[in-house]
Amino acid sequence: MQQSNNKKVLLIGPPNVGKSVIFNKLTGLNVAMANYSGTTVDYKKGQVNYNNINYDLIDVPGTYTLDATNEAEQVAVDMLSEGADLVITVLDGNNLESSLYLLLQVLERNLPTIAVLNRVDLLEDKGYEVAHEKLSHEIGIDIIKTVAVSGEGIDPLKEKIKEKLLNDQTKKDINRDMKADWFEAERLNLEYLNKKNSTYDRDKDTLGDKLSRPWPGIPLAIIILGLIFGIVVGIGMGMRQYLLLPFFRGIIFPFIYSAVEAIIPPGVIRNILIGEYGFFIKGLEWPFALVFPYVVSFYTALSILEDSGYLPRLGVLLDGLFKKVGLTGGNIIPLLLGYGCAIPGIAATRALPTKKERVTVSTLICLAVPCISQTGALISLLAEQSITVMILVFAVSFLALIVAAIIMDKTIEGKNELTIVEIPPLLWPGPGVIAKKIWLRVKMYISNGALVMIYAIAGASILFELGILEYLGQIFQPIVQNWLQLPAEASAPLLLGIVRRELAVLPLLEMGLNSVQLFVGAVVALFYVPCIAVLAMLAREFNLKLATKVLVLTVGISFLLGGIFARIGNLILMF
Ligand SMILES: Nc1nc2c(ncn2[C@@H]2O[C@H](COP(=O)(O)OP(=O)(O)OP(=O)(O)O)[C@@H](O)[C@H]2O)c(=O)[nH]1
Ligand SMILES: [Mg+2]
User: Fold this and answer.
1) Among the bound ligands, the one closest to the CA of 13
2) Which keywords are on file for this protein (predicted)?
């Protein structure tokens, strides 16, 4: 990271109070925000330049106390121990007492501190207000009221930060008699949190309660998740079928074909560009017509889910069910993120309380949670030819998750801790925030995912035209043809699949497979190597040993199951 002499300002606070929203407003950057605890699992740094004053603002993972209980919280404690020119403690208007405890702990560190009282809109909705001026007076630091999502209070906050950074010598007298204990926090809470009126919007909360109780929570969850799945697949397929494929195949490709044919004589070069793996063709069709629509539809749904506050409730609801297989309800968020991309999924495990849970959930994501790119590819491969095969593939993936979770629970040492899932209020996601989140993720897909895919396709087209793919196919013959009973060309997806998960699927599209082969190809792809970037992430987050284990495990299970299914499938076909 670049070293700078800028002043350092930390944003500290309990999870889910809006630190990242404030960070984004102050820096103009876009870091991930979501309505559940543990969104920010590593610190994020951004530079602020405000009225000629420069400083580095650091968005710290949320923590309830300075006695860290997970890795994300430890980051927060470490950041504070390194010192800062100013600490901004963000208090949750909606959950003042626990925020106050953290504030008291921060004040013990004797760093220049101000507080932000955020989410006051939620507090006011409940008919409460905080006498923040009196509170400020008692503890001896400035407190600024904000509604970060609407931008209210952000300008005064900018001014206050500037003022503090310019006169850091003249620290106000923090009340040194304050003790950081829960009694003190409770006393302050009782004293300064006042009921204003009683037009408390109870409906919102009771709906929230209902969602996390088995009845009617479970039927509602089935409806909500079913609906979301339908919308994701429906919108994805619709966009692909009626918008993107006609656009590429009807307009762009004919143009490319005629242009290339006019300029480049028949031969290897022309084939590399527009032949079987022609990367002008596949390099556009695969990332942008087949996968892109699902990336958009999935992240639209996920962003709305994230900000609604539903996910932690789903976690509570599923806790009992998850416990049966050795997981906890809190694992739902990393797993769900994994259905988008394994990397944020694994990152989100940092907020889990034990190493065992981190390893288990990360391994599950690598093994049997297809990322959205791969899901899009699987749908492209299967949906049109056989819905039954598609349903079977997803059923196999669920089954594998359950079995693998049980096995890991039995074999990995350690215990799963009872997690207390913080339940945020239900919120109507703001369209602006949602749009921003979708855009961020789509941008990420284009700059990372699609680009890597295009490189890989370019590589493949060269290897194919030079006959190297065919040669490699011969080496893989025992596995691909004899064991998996797939055509020889199916060694290509196995090679490409190491680079990106959907590339283990997409080449199968052109091979005219029968339904058993489709199923086998899809299952092999599903369990196969979780893509190079994910292995690197595992090595970084845990160690090389785990990355190697996951590699061996995924390839092993993928081939083992593939071969078994090929035999069972052919037996069934015979009758
Ligand atoms: N109603 C309301 N919602 C807010 C406000 N500020 C933030 N939010 C919402 O609160 C949720 C949490 O915001 P984040 O910025 O992700 O919270 P965070 O403190 O960074 O959370 P962690 O990274 O998990 O520690 C999001 O859904 C925001 O849209 C506010 O002032 N009012
Ligand atoms: Mg955050």
Assistant:
1) 1
2) GTP-binding, Membrane, Nucleotide-binding, Transmembrane, Transmembrane helix
CA 18 to ligand 2 centroid distance, Å: 7
Rounded to two decimals, the ipTM of the complex is: 0.98
Atom of ligand 1 lying closest to residue 23 CA: 15
pLDDT band of 200, cuts 50, 70, 90: low
> Could you say which ligand is closest to the alpha carbon of residue 122?
1
- Residues 364 and 316 both lie in one domain: yes
Token code pair at residue 156:
């005064």
* Res 1: pLDDT: 41
Q: What is the DSSP string of 516-574?
A: HHHHHHHHHHHHS---HHHHHHHHHHS-HHHHHHHHHHHHHHHHHHHHHHHHHHHHHHH
- Indicate if 163 and 253 belong to the same structural domain: no
Q: Are residues 42 and 150 in the same domain?
A: yes
Nearest CA to ligand 1 atom 26: 35
Task: Find tokens 């007492």 and name the residue.
Answer: 97
The CATH number that applies at residue 177 is 3.40.50.300
pLDDT above 70 (res 2): no
- Say whether both 170 and 244 belong to one domain: no
Nearest CA to ligand 1 atom 32: 119
Q: How confident is the model at residue 418 (pLDDT cuts 50, 70, 90)?
A: low
- Residues 475, 329 share a domain: yes
Protein residues with CB under 6 Å of any ligand 1 atom = 13, 15-21, 33-35, 37-40, 61-62, 118-119, 121-122, 147-149, 307, 427, 433
pLDDT, residue 177, reads 63
Q: Is 512 left (phi over 0), alpha (psi -120 to 50) or beta?
A: left
Query: What is the residue with the minimal CA distance to atom 13 of ligand 1?
Result: 18
Model confidence pLDDT, tens digit, residues 551-574: 999 999 999 999 999 999 989 888
Q: What are phi and psi of 351, to 5 degrees?
A: -85, 0
Question: What one-character DSSP code corresponds to residue 331?
Answer: G
Beta bridge partners of 58: 10, 45
Choose the residue to mutate in 39, 92, 98, 124 for probing ligand 1, maximizing ligand atoms within 8 Å of C-beta. Answer: 39
Using DSSP's 3-state secondary structure scheme, residue 153 falls into: coil
* C-beta of residue 540 within 8 angstroms of C-beta of residue 524: no
User: How many domains does the chain divide into?
Assistant: 2
In a domain, 205, yes or no: no
Domain that residue 23 falls in = 7-200
Q: Whose CA is nearest to atom 16 of ligand 1?
A: 33
Q: Is the pLDDT of residue 33 over 60?
A: yes
